[in-house]
Amino acid sequence: MEQNDSLEISKERRKARGAVSNPTGRFETTQRIETSDDWAIEEERALFKTAVSLETAKSMIVRNTSPDLPFDRSINPYRGCEHGCIYCFARPTHAYLGFSPGLDFETRLIARPNAASILDAELRKRGYAVAPLAIGTNTDPYQPIEKQHKIMRQCLAVLQKFRHPVAIVTKGTLIERDLDILSEMACEGLVQVGVSITSLDVRTSRLMEPRAPVPARRLALVERLAKAGVPVRVMVAPVVPCVTDHEIERIFGAAANAGARAATWIMLRLPLEVSALFQEWLAAHFPDRKARVMSHVRAMHGGKDYAADWGKRMRGEGPYAQMIAHRAALAMRKNGLSKTLPNLRTDLFAVPFAEGNQLSLF
Fold it and tell me: Which residues does 247 contact at the CB level (< 8 Å), separation at least 6?
């Protein structure tokens, strides 16, 4: 039998996972449907366990020209993310690998062990123009498998060696392991960290982000980073209508008390397969709110589940979106949170001497 394609998978098999189904990727030519063989024999179905494959990366730095983003380049040490955030807009990228954006995205992960060496080579290319590099904007570089693979730490060591500016986004407290590097880079104005906190309610957080650290632990992370001199911004990303929207003020206040200097927020985005996956999740965990949530979402995107228009996709439009924006702005002012952190330095960038190279006499 194949994996269930359209029906909810049993709670036992998807324990501590975000998605409730595992639909076939949109590029696949065949569909996987679970069906009975009519033998009337109870068959034990396996749990969705985390599996990690290794990929030899050919390139690392990914460029973008989006006017919605404050950076033009990023890297991803991993594909897929074990945190399992049901709202993650990166889920559809798993379809390019022949996997499902559902449970596959959070269980069939890909690590890129040569990432640091490829990054080193790309930074040495003649004509490379330095600008802040973003990490964690697609999948979390400090998800649980980083503890074993240490790819993010290796990449961070490369960036420190080049004195290259970097902005990191994470929910993972494993970043504390790298405070030795981060604190040194922070002293030179080369690093800043965004910590994502979507809810302060443990139950809600566990349902939305089943394998991410609990909210209190993330606040402790903000405090530890701040005390180490690392500039921190709190990110309420996303704001989920009728589920977490009432928490904006509390999150900003708690983060400011912990030492965050800046704050940002993004409205719930449901591109491609994320919409169906998220609606399944709502039906499973918040059935009484599903209609209201989707009504707000569609009202912000011209009647659609999602509209990718630049300048609008991150915040939406209409009365509800305006109300959230107004509340967030007031909460930021009240708590002394800036919209941005100080600019990272780019003037310190220097290509280090490569191991094995011969020094020039002149």
Answer: 199, 200, 201, 236
pTM: 0.94
Structure tokens at 336: 């002394």
Q: Is 50:109 a contact under the CB 8 Å cutoff?
A: yes
Query: Exposed/middle/buried for 215, CB within 10 Å: 0-12, 13-18, 19+?
Result: buried
Q: What is the largest CA-CA distance in the chain?
A: 82
Quote the DSSP letter at residue 359.
P
Residue where the block lists tokens 């002149």: 362
Type of residue at 226:
A
Cα three-residue angle 340-345-140, rounded to 5 degrees: 60
Count of CB atoms within 10 A of residue 342's CB? Answer: 11
| Cα–Cα nearest to 212, from 164, 173, 248, 249 | 173
Per-residue pLDDT for 1 more than 60?
Answer: no
pLDDT tens-place string over residues 238-275: 999 999 999 999 999 999 999 999 999 999 999 999 99
Provide the residue ranges of all domains of the chain, joining segments of one domain with +: 51-334
Reading phi first (left if > 0) and then psi (alpha if -120 to 50, else beta), residue 264 is in beta
* Pairing between β-strand 73-75 and β-strand 62-63 as defined by DSSP bridges: antiparallel
**pLDDT (0 to 100) of residue 5:** 42
**Residues 320, 296: Cα–Cα separation, whole Å:** 7
SS3 category, 138: coil
What CATH superfamily classification does 51-334 receive?
A: Aldolase class I (3.20.20.70)
CA dihedral 270, 271, 275, 278 (to 10 degrees): -50
Hey, is 115 helix, strand or coil? Answer: helix
